[in-house]
Amino acid sequence: METAPAEGDSKKAGRKHKGKHDKPKPWDDDPNIDHWKIEKFDPSWNEGGMLEVSSFSTLFPQYREKYLQEAWPMVKSALKDCGISCELNLVEGSMTVSTTRKTRDPYIIVKARDLIKLLSRSVPAPQAIKILNDDMQCDIIKIGSLIRNKERFVKRRERLLGPNLSTLKAIEILTGCYVLVQGNTVSAMGSFKGLKQVRRIVEDCIQNVQHPVYHIKTLLMKRELAKNPALANENWDRFLPKFKKKNVKQKKVKVKEKKSYTPFPPPQQPSKIDLQLESGEYFLSDKKKSAKKWQEKLEKQADKAAENKRKREAAFIPPKENSTHVSDSAKSDNDIDKVDAMMESLKKKAKEYKKHEALENVRAESYIASAENLRPKKKQKSSKSK
Question: What's the pLDDT at 384?
Answer without folding.
Answer: 45
